Amino acid sequence: MSQDIRNLEPKQLWNKFADLNAVPRPSKKEERVIQFMKEFGENLGLETIVDEVGNVIIRKPATSGMEDRKPIVMQSHLDMVHQKNNDTVFDFDTQGIEMYIEGDWVKAKGTTLGADNGLGVATIMAILESDTIAHPALEALFTIDEETGMTGAMGLKGGLLKGEILLNLDTEEDDEIGVGCAGGVDVTATRTYNEEDTPETKIGYSITVKGLQGGHSGMQIHEGLGNANKIMNRLLFDGFENFGLRISEIDGGSLRNAIPRESNAIVAIDAIHEAAFELELKQLAAIIKTEFKTMEPDLEIVVSKTDTPEKIMDLGVQEGITRALYAACNGVYRMSPDIKDLVETSNNIARVILKDGSIKIGCLTRSSVESSKLDLANTLRATFELTGCEVAFSGQYPGWAPNMDSDILKVMVPIYERLNNGEKPHVAACHAGLECGILGQNYPDMDMISFGPNIKGAHSPDERAQISSTQKYWEFVLEILKHIPKA
């Protein structure tokens, strides 16, 4: 199917995307893609730098007649989110993404596609390689580890880049021009607990929540998608309240920036409650599925007998942690009072691991307002500390404050309208975390903007890139490059 992708228009872009997707590039394991990009720049005879954290910078002089324009930076991140369906056999560390075409969409076989942010990377590669595309002096900035910490952007030193305008190609709606984004902080609650021997009167059950869509924990947090960790906790809470259910282990969610799609738990109940427990959980599962039938039509809740676990968690800790998970905010915390329909502050309960006497709960809190971000983080901290957890804040990154007086914005809006029969672009801030806010700390005078093609289902195996939108976006890119303001 790779050849089918390569035949799509614009071929320059799709061929580079196919090349890139053949290289494994998990966050924090970008050694191969860094080397791939380094060799790409060097093979073109262009100045190529790999900085001390692993970001790759490739410089290309202005094309003839464009020497008097402001120098620009085109920026995308090299890493991709790794998610796969439970029944998909795939090794992200060794395999390239397997792509196919379905109608107007490019998809991957049971895994994330890597269009986030691979289409941006491929765009820049195509421009670097071309000898016909007009552009000013260009620095291509390929950052690492955007998805799990933004350490590439954080580690980029000031003074290294010479560009005056930065084009970030990491937006996922083709009618949107991004001028701001949310910052974030990881909120992690941990504690230990005593394990007890499971009484002989108890029997074991496995509870599985699966079939949820998952998705981007920033861009899609307002859509009402199911969170497997919250649904699982609801089931466990009910089982304890009605039948004295005891928890042995929980493994729910995966990445901090992905809405959890699956959760698995091993529990024990008194054998005398077997029939009533199964009936109650069946009825509750039907209620939950009805609640989510519009957004999550493939939701499955499976309750089945299994071997009785040898150990269960301390009763007092179980009561506290299930109540804390019930109380912890998940989803939208506050909408922006200043920008219509923009989520200001949210939280994703991304990961719940409970096993062998140890609890770890990982959340990603986002906000475009630093004080509101801290307010929600402290709300979560207080919730989990009340049940004896230690709570740590880490991985903080700033938001990107909108600049509605941006010179490049004034260039891009009329170009968009001209190319799209007068249709106006949606100039907006987004609730995702973009690298612009971080980069702006060391480059405060750089004029920044973000845009991209339509990508749906990012951070999930349903990720897909729209072919017609990519064509529209490519034409937009080429026109922007022609009209960069004079220095």
UniProtKB/TrEMBL annotation:
Span of domain Peptidase M20 dimerisation = 208-293
Q: Does the keyword Hydrolase apply?
A: yes
**What InterPro entries is this protein classified in?**
Peptidase_M20, Peptidase_M20_dimer, Peptidase_M20C
Sorted alphabetically, the keyword list is: Hydrolase
Domain of life (superkingdom):
Bacteria
Under Gene3D superfamilies, the record lists:
Zn peptidases
UniProt keyword annotation of Hydrolase present = yes
Q: Which Pfam families match?
A: M20_dimer (PF07687), Peptidase_M20 (PF01546)
NCBIfam families, alphabetically?
aa-his-dipept
* Protein name, UniProt field: Aminoacyl-histidine dipeptidase
What organism is this sequence from?
Answer: Winogradskyella echinorum
Q: What is the lineage of its organism?
A: Bacteria, Pseudomonadati, Bacteroidota, Flavobacteriia, Flavobacteriales
